[in-house]
Each structure stands twice: as C-alpha cells, then as structure tokens.
Amino acid sequence: MTLRVRGLTIDHGAIRAISSASFNVPKGSITAVIGANGAGKSTLLRTISGLKRATSGNILWDELAIDHLQTEQIVRAGIVHVPEGRSVVTELTVSENLALGGVWRLRKNKADVVRAIDEVYELFPRLAERRKQRADTLSGGERQMLAIGRGLVARPQLLLLDEPSLGLAPLVVEQIFQTLAQLQRSTGMTILLVEQNAMSALRIASQGIVLDQGQVVIADDARAIMNDTALRHAYLGY
Amino acid sequence: MHVVHKPSTGKRITLALFIALILFVASNFVDEYRIFQGAQVAAYLVGIISIVLLTGFSGQITLGQGAFMAVGAYSAAIVVQEFALPIWLTFFIAVIAAALFGAIIGISAGRLSGPYLAGATLAFAVGIPALANAIPILGGEQGLSFDIGFAPGKYADTVSPYKWLFWICALCAIIAVVIAVNLTSSGMGREWRAVRAHETAAALSGINPARSKVLAFTVSSGFAGLAGVSFSATVGLVSPSGFTLSLSFLLLTGAILGGISHISGALGGAFIIVIIPTIFEAWTEEASLGVATYLPGIIVSALLLLSIALAPEGPSEALHKLRHRGHRKP
Amino acid sequence: MNLLNTLIAGVSIGAIYSLIAFALILVWRSTRVVNFAQAGQAAFSTYVGLTIEKAVGNYWLALIGAILAGVIVGAFVEVVVVRFIVKRATSAATATVAPVIAMLGLLGIFQGVMGLIWGGEYQPYPTAFAREGMSIAGNQIPFSQFDLFVLLTVVVAMSISAVIFQRTSLGLSMRAAAFAPEVTRLSGIRVSRIRTLGWAFAGGAGGLAGVLVAPTTFIAPNSFDLLLVFGFTAAVIGGLDSLIGGVLGGLALGIGLSVVTGYLGGSYTFMTAFVLLIVILLVRPQGILGARGARRA
Asked: Rounded to whole angstroms, how far apart are CA atoms B59 and B53?
C-alpha cells in the first residue's frame, strides 16, 4: 500500500507549518523526511496519524482518504505513529507498554499479539530483561526501543517514526537504525522516518524528502541526495 | 496608542450620589414588597462584586463565597449581642472581620491552584452549619438575631421598616460599587489582571503575584462581609441556614451571568438571581409547591452550566468581545 | 471509650470515604476535572435504590439498581456535559475554572431535580443488617453487623476494581489513558470511550457509597454534600492521582475522625477534617501517600 500526500497545507494557529506538500511513500520503502528544526516534520507526521487536522489537501492510503479519520481508525488501517520524545507510558511496566500496542486487536487475534510481543523481545533483548520494570527506570535508548516496540506490536503496514535518534548516544542511534533496516527487510513494511540526523537516516533510507520552512524542496533517491554536495550544504548543513 | 476617557473618582461619586437620590425618591413610589426585593438585589450585588473581584480580576476561584459572608454577618451579630454597639458600626466591623479572615485564608489560598482551591472553598461553605454548631457563641441552628430596627427618631413612624432596610442596603451597595470601580481601574486592579493572565510574566515585570493574590482575597472578603451583613439585615437573622451552599452557588451564577470580568455586570447578575424565583411565585397556588420550590434552582444551575458551556468567560464577556471585535486589532 | 473501640468505629465510615475518593480520583485521572457533581450523582443513584426498595421490597435488588443508576448517570454526565465543556474551555484562564463551575451547575441541577421528584425532606434508608454493636466475649463493641457488611462490600468492590485495573486489557487502557492519553490514542485505543467508562465506573462507586452511607445520614437532595467534602479530603490525602492512595486516605480519615469524635465530641469532626484538608494542601499538595511510587495504580 502506498501513502500519497497531495497538496497538504497545515497551520499552527496563525503560523503555516506545511504549505502545499505533495509526495509519495512507496510500499516497502524507507522514506526519510529530513530538514532543520522547525521545518514542519513532526507536524506532518501528526497530521498523517490524525492527531492534527490539515487546513487543506488530501492524504490517501491507497484508495482510502485518511485525512478525516480519527487516530484510532488510522491505527486500524495499518498506520502506526511513534511520536518523538521516546513516548512510552512511564507509569506502566515494559510488558504493559508493549501489551498496550496490541489491545485494539486483542479480540480479533490474541495469539498474534502475543507473537508480536515475543518478536519485539527478540528484536530488542534489552527489553526482555526488563519486562517487569517500570518504563521510567529505563535508559533513553531503551525507552526509544520500547516506543518502537509498542508500535510494532500493532503490526503496522506503515510505521511513522519521529526523531528516534533524538538525544541518544551515537552508538545507540546506530544500533536502532540498523535494527530498523533489518526489520524492514524481513517484514517488508513501509517506514516513514522523520529525522534531523540526516546522515544516519539517509544511509538506511531508499528515498529522501527534504523539507525547508514547510515546503518540500526535494523528493529524490536517498543516495542521490547524499551525493549532491550543493544540496547538502544548502539544506542539511554538512 | 489610544486614549480612553475614564471618569475621575470625583465624577463617579457625583454619579453615585445622583443614583442614590433617584433610588431614594423612587422608593416612595413602589410597593413594599418591591422595596424589599430592592434590598435583596443590593445585598446580592455586593456579594457578586466580591466574586467578580476575586475570580474575574485575580483569577482565584471560589465556590464558597457564602462562607465569607457568614463570617461578616456573624461578627456583626456577635458585637450587637455582646456589646450592644450601634447597628451602623457593625457594618464596619463585619467588613474588617471578614477581610482579616480573608487575609488568613488568602495566604493559604494563594498557594493553591484551580481544583484544590475550589475544593477547599467548597469545603468551607459546606462546613458552615457544622462550625456554627461547634462554637457555642454562634448560637447553633437557631443562629443569632440581627435586627436593624426602625428609622431613627421621629422618622420611625413615617418610614416603613422595609424602606429603612432598602435605604441601608442600597447605600452599602452604592458605596461598594464606587470603591470596587475605583479599585479595579487603579494600578492594583491592573496588577490583579496581570497575575491572572500570566503569573510568570507578571512577576517578571515587578509584581509580587503571591502578595497580589492575598490582597485580592482580603479585599474580596471585605466585600463579602458587607454583603453578609446586608443579607442578614434583610432576613433579620444570622443562622447557618442563611449561608448554605446554594447561596454560594447563587452568587457565583449571578457573577458568571453578569460577566465575571466586569463590575458593571454585577447589577444585571443580581437582578437575574432575585427575579428568577419571583417568576414562579405566581404559580405557587396552582402548581404543586415542589415545582415552585425547586424549579428556580434548576433554572439558575442550568443557566450557569449553559453559560459556561457556550461562553466559558460568561455570556456578557462574549457579547463584550463581539462588540469590540471591530477595533481590537488593525 | 477505649482507643481500640474508637478505631474500629471509624473503619466502616472510612471505607465509604474511600469509595468517594476512588470515584473522584478515577475521574480526575482521566479528565483532570474534580467532579463536585458526584454528591448529586450519588444521591440520585441512592434515590433510585430507595424507589426500587419501596416498590419491590428487596434490599439487594435496590443495591444493584443504585449501582447501575450510578453507572448510567456517570456515563451520561461525561457524554452530554463534560466532553463539551472540556472541548470549549481551552484558554489558560478558563481551562481550570470552567469545568469546576460547570460541575457545580450540574450539582445544582441534580439537587433541584431530586427535590422535584422525591421532595426535600430527609428519608430513612433501610438496611439488611442489624445496626447494634456486636458483642465479642460478652463485651459490646461499636461495630455492628451493618458496619461489617459495609466494610466487606467495599473490600470486595475494591478487589474487583484492582483485578480489572491490573489484570485486564480494559484496565490497562484506563491506566494508560490516564497518564498518557496521546500515546494511548496512537495505540489504537478509543480514549474518549475509555474516559466515558471511567466516569461510568466512578458513578457506580458513588451509587454504592450512597446506599452504604444513607442508613446513617438519611437521604435528601443535599445530604451527601458533607460526604463529598470528606471524600475530597481523602483523595487529597492520597494525592488525587493514586487510587490506592485515595482508598488508604479514606480509611485513615475515617479512623482519624472517629478518634477526634470519640475524645473531643462530634462537633469537632468537620473542623478537624477541614483543617486537615487545608494543612495537607499547603504542606504536601502531592498528598501524604502520593509519593511517586503510589502514583502507579
């Protein structure tokens, strides 16, 4: 399934966060949305997942228009958003956080929820060691793993990831990104990754979208963006 | 920069004297029951002003303003009973006692936010009967009598008790309005509003938010004390049943309906809460007594709920905004 | 009167405070609103119970009816009023004040409607158990069969709640929605529905509390105002965010007030609770039991 964004405009009160953005996220790709702080990247994800309403434009998930659906319905359509800031429920334990990701489809397929949780433990063995611990006792990297894991338990067809590298040590970032790449290869799921850390993101991505002050300035092959020195200087600052 | 012409204190006092004169003359042409209702409006008006000052200007919520009124009323009744002081003096004592009490509560209230302050003031109002029973000097359920008596000297025969009552309550209300308007248009009123709008910002511009809140609580309680003693004068009695939770609700409703951010709305609010029950007085003979007893309360509460739901800042505030939308921003 | 007897006497009323605290905290956690209308909801539910009792003459049917009425009224209040108010009150100045005033208006409506339907006078509420103190080894203690029934009922209700909260996916959703509504929505859970359930749950607890306390206080439209204040105090002792804290707070308050009543006399009960409330709010607004660990369940 392909996500198609057409002429999307999003306002934050009087401020225009995204103006008339159009792009595709092809099935099975890792698409990286990159750009400076304040470029509108998080707003874009929040709108796709239904936490925020667009001012105009359409978001299509194959044939389904999702721009007027509720967040809960969008999750049920297979699009799962892991917001920035290692969003876990700190008052719940690791295993409760993971279970939370599967509650909505528990009645339909309990066995698969259990299987999905086990898979997350295999993917991130550190979480398995701490399954009875409260989430607020985890390190930053572990919390990010838990946040991603909670998303994976929903068995998404499209995973929206917001700044998974934020505030983490380079080694941990590397580990998480490698896990994501490996996960994508083995499951064929689509990942839309928002990152300020452009280099790490583009390295695992197949496609890159550069946002600048709310506008899509480039949508191209990830490798082409990495190799375009002028472009990197202009928008990515390295 | 736009210049607003605001009347000076002198002009306000002149206007107030003029209104007093009109009321004085008018009171001779209205029947006794309407005069009594006029006294009620005057007493509620002062109570509503005390809420407008506290919640509208200083941003501190109170669900138990009736309790502060009770403090003023009981103080007045006690000094009458124990020391036989003249009635006019008891009004001052009520204001001072309530203000002092308000200062003490305000010191604690200044540190409480939204729901906690609401709960604490509600607890206070709910507890008035229990407190009246616990302290012997307060006279338990029966309460203390509070009779403002007749007009002095030779007027006692010509001025009816209700008229005398109305004059006293209206005078208190007029004085209260003048003081409240002067306070709120002064630097102090602006400080309160600044703290309400943004505490940190206010602190950064040199205002002490804690002191401002305690001061607001003290002043508001003083007004509540005056309202309490006026209210007791209309009843002739100071008792727990006079200061129920419903009284606090009623005043809060008047304040919200009149417009929580403007002193001028208080009069409208006071009229509404006095008039609503009278609408049903005519019904009483035909319909069952229960309807006339409970329907006013339901209507008042429903108005409160509706106004909060439709215009969280109060209906008059919404109108105010609508009217001034044209010249708010370029 | 010896100390042990005084302590025992406070347990059953403390258990009722716990129920009210539980109801207030449940709503506060999910919606950030202190439900002052709970006093009216509980009284309404109790009247429904009393009406069933008068019609059928069965205490247990009345008890169940009251709890169900509480559940329905709680859900109704959330869906019809609260959802709307919370959506409207968005500015900083109105967000905290508006819901409080709205709940007060709702309380007024409840009390008026109850007066219309059932009248204003205090009515007795029957019990299925003896109210005289039981005797143990020839000594009469200030703890009746009815007190025992109250205590056991609350313990059972709390145990069921604990199982629901800790062991079911519904409970997991409720806890998650209370602490992190956005993450919960992103997990595909209908948070607004969970919130309605929370209000329904709290309403049921209020109805149960009403039926348990009414034989002692009698029932009138405003006869639970004081209960609300004690329940709020208990919730504040527990820190307003912790269900366990609130339940323990209720028991502590009931026992503490019983001691005060026993040694100083009944007229000091309310004053003690009021002073306690103010002192806790000033000294430890996070609650005595509301330390970080207690915030959990």
From this structure: 9
